[in-house]
Amino acid sequence: MTPLALGLRLVLRGSRATRVRFLLMTLGCALGVACLAAALSIPAILAAHDGRAAGREVQGGPGSGALFLERKGPFGNRPLTRIFISPPETGTVPLPPGVARVPRPGEVVVSPALGDLLAERPALKGALPGRVVDTIGPAGLTGPQELYAYVGRTRAQLPPDEARPLGGYGNRWTAPDEAAIDDGTVAPLRFTLCCLVLLPLFVYLSVCVRLSAEARSRRLASLRLLGLSARDTMRVSAVETLCAAAVGAVLGVGLHLLVNAWVARTGWVGLAWYPADGLPSVWTLTACLLGCPTLAYLAGRRHAKEAALRPLAVRRQAQPGKPRRWLAALLVLPGLGIVTAYCVLGVVGVHVEPSAVTSFLVPAGAQLTGAGLVLALPPVTAWLAARVAATTQRLPLTLAMRHHETTPGAALRVVSGLVLLVYAASLTQGVLVELDQVSRRTAPNQEYEVPLRQVTPEQRTAMVKTEGISGNAVAAEVPSREGDILFATCTELEKLATPGTVRGCVDGRPLALHDPFAHTEDTKQPGTTHLVKLRDEAGQEAGSARFTVPEETVTFAAVQPSALSSALLLVPPKTLPPGVHPAHARLVLSGAPEPEAVQATLDRLAGIAPTAQIDPVGIVIESLRQLSIVKGLLGTGMVLGLVIGVAAFLVSATDRAMDGRRRTATLTLLGIRTRTLRAAQCAQVLLPLAVGIGGALVAGRLAESSYLVTGGGAVFWDGEGLPLLLLSGLGVLAVAGLASLPMARRHLDPELLRRD
Predict the structure, then answer these.
(1) How many CB atoms lie within 10 A of CB 613?
(2) Helices 595-608 and 457-465 meet at what angle, rounded to 10?
(3) 10 Å Cβ neighbour count for 498?
(4) Based on the number of CB atoms within 10 Å of its own CB, is 570 exposed (0-12), middle (13-18) or buried (19 or more)?
(5) Cβ distance 597 to 468 under 8 Å?
(6) Burial class for 162, CB neighbours closer than 10 Å (0-12, 13-18, 19+)
(7) By the 8 A CB rule, do 37 and 288 touch?
(8) pTM to 2 decimal places
(9) Residues 322-364: pLDDT tens digits?
């Protein structure tokens, strides 16, 4: 019988335990390949998003005779883009991607998501004048949830100073303005996802293809002793491993396709995409269908080679060789050296600018540290177990330490996934801190500006009273454009300004305003008169009002950036007649500065006045969108890493318990109580896990700090997440300890003891 036929017969017609092991190996590889395909498909999804955004970008230039005007604004925390097109009376107009025909005046072509939104909120039609005649196809949208519209208008309806000639669509030379993630964010995101997913995935796949390694090695040694050559013995082992890995790889790709079709349109990660965008590329299929079997073969080759060359030692369970310390040192020392060096530079106050060197060294140092951390566990824990066993007088601890001392590699498979998960969590926190500095406001509040003419009195009242709004005022632009007149009370001014900075404010009379932090010189001009035009609630002219700058001055400090920076006069709101407001005025609102609170407030304000232009002062809506996407992708990576780490622990712990049944039965026959066995089993898992998590926390904090030092931000040391990481580490220890208790069953199987 050939080695191939023998290997297939052992897989298909082996014992029930062999078939169960093969099934578990296949399912484990399928889960790992699905996670790998998901991680590798993220760049393709982002590239498809950016490619369609670049393909529809409107280009100015003569030729078509059409005019266009582009308007972008937020609808809640989502960008709403409107392209107003004025086609010529004769001639052809370039077609936008995904549009069957250019809308004529009075017609609107909208994206499917915007069409659904129009049906839910008819008031939004004010921003899209015309009749909806068609929808935009996938070729003209970055995703199924995008709010995009082409609006047909006449030339007279477009402002002549803003409308431009329409030349065509598509931008091949520069990055699109609507890129899903900017270039400065792609590199740290790719680095973090590699640490979150690929490192634990490598460990997990190695665990899956080495299920029941001890039993398989004994079976291969038996074949070798029966006369099979060493080469044929290794081929028999490769058949079983490669069959499980190949079938698992195919199932994993299929699982990825199912999950991709379900998740794509939900926008769960902050970015919705079309299912075709997430289809695995040729390189992804190659990595999954060929890389997984190759990894499986390499992982199982070592034990197969040992069984082929030393069959008697394997059958008699000779003590394995000591772990190689030099390999761990070869990885962990350079990695720790790199990250520690940058941390030292941060301690001494040396500012390291982001560069190509830091972009290579910091990720390389973090990757080397993570890999070396796992490889250093066997020699470190074996040395520690020998010292503990030599000093302790407790039987459970002695049993656990002596067994771990002889087989430290078995414990490595159990705890390495969880150790890498804790290490990657610390790195992810550093990346989030660095990215959050882009949109993090150090000011105590966040301001919003709404043109007063775009909201009704009822909407204005609802906005002021909405949840999350703490202060409000009306800012009117003076004709000379030298500044603004602020209509507010002293209480409202204190809510809008930096707390504790308002001095000299008295209600009931006009007062000059001066911000010494923004203007070192005194900008007030006592006696200067400003004429402000007034309008009624219907938008009709209602006369004008004159305001004179008095001698009395209120000093305050406006948050930066702020709509109050140009305010020069504070006027009580009751000064104006009822039902009248300044012609060129803005409603200024104030709320909490946290990104989550800003997004929630924008959603509430947009629900009150869907057609109004709501501008968060100092915040670009694209930054919020990108931050949401990055957090969603990192959250997805954390979920994948958690699944991989927990699965690796459960699979390896169960496999180790199955391999240890003979030892457990022997100890039970010798009179060791079940409680002692469970305590020994628990200690045997907790020792390498505690050492690994402790090392992961220290190494992870060093790697995180080195990333912050070289990131160019103002935060070098982040201590806010340390308590959460410590609690997570303790939680992992508690769960692992409880999960190890049922593995020491008091069960006497004669078949397990017969050979001994």
Answers:
(1) 15
(2) 160
(3) 18
(4) buried
(5) yes
(6) exposed
(7) yes
(8) 0.69
(9) 555 666 667 778 888 888 888 888 777 777 776 777 777 877 7
- Residue 407's alpha-carbon distances to 190, 253, 381, 401, 742, in angstroms, are 36, 35, 10, 10, 21
pLDDT 10s digits, 392-433: 888 888 887 887 777 776 666 667 777 877 787 777 776 666
Please give the distance of CA 418 from its chain centroid, rounded to a whole number. 20
The residue type of 520 is: T
Nearest residue to 439 via CA among 720, 177, 182 = 182
Contacts of residue 499, defined as CB under 8 A and 6 or more positions apart, other chains included, come to 444
User: Would you call the peptide bond into 561 cis, given omega within 30 degrees of 0 as the criterion?
Assistant: yes
| DSSP category for residue 455 | S
**What does R_g of the chain's alpha carbons equal in angstroms?**
34
Q: How far apart are CA 284 and CA 276, in angstroms?
A: 14
To the nearest 10 degrees (0 to 180), the angle between helices 199-208 and 356-375 is 30
- The token pair at 307 is 């069984």
pLDDT tens digit string along 660-680?
A: 666 777 777 777 777 787 787
Asked whether 700 and 722 are in contact (CB, 8 A), the reply is no
Lowest mean pLDDT among 254-258, 455-459, 572-576, 663-667: 663-667
Run of H or E residues at 51 = helix 16-55
The 3-state secondary structure of 165-232, one letter per residue: EEEEECCCCCCCCCCCCCHHHHHHHHHHHHHHHHHHHHHHHHHHCCCCHHHHHHHHHHHHHCCCCHHH
Count of CB atoms within 10 A of residue 741's CB? 14
Which residues on adjacent β-strands are paired with residue 590?
Answer: 447, 471
The answer to whether the CB of 431 falls within 8 A of the CB of 555 is no
**Cβ within 8 Å of residue 315, ≥6 positions away:** 218, 221, 222, 225
- Residue 704 · residue 718 · CB < 8 Å: yes
Q: How many residues can be counted in the chain?
A: 756
DSSP summary character for residue 319: P
Q: Cβ neighbours of residue 337 under 8 Å, at least 6 residues apart?
A: 365
As a whole number of Å, the end-to-end CA separation of the chain is: 31
User: What pLDDT sits at residue 756?
Assistant: 47
Joined together, the tokens standing for residue 271 give: 């970015």
The candidate with the shortest Cα–Cα distance to 422, out of 725, 89, 668, is 725
Q: Which helix (H) or strand (E) holds 447?
A: strand 446-451
What is the identity of the amino acid at 722? L
Pairing of strands 107-110, 131-135: parallel
Directed axis angle between helix 183-193 and helix 621-659, to 10°? 10
Task: Show the beta-strand stretches assigned E in 549-662.
Answer: 553-555, 567-571, 580-582, 585-591, 615-616
Torsions phi, psi for 589 (to 5 deg): -120, 155
Q: Which CA distances in Å does 53 have to 24, 57, 138, 148, 278?
A: 44, 6, 11, 11, 17
Sequence-ordered list of residues with C-beta below 8 angstroms from that of 417, at least 6 positions apart, any chain: 200, 203, 204, 207, 644, 645, 646, 647, 648, 649, 652
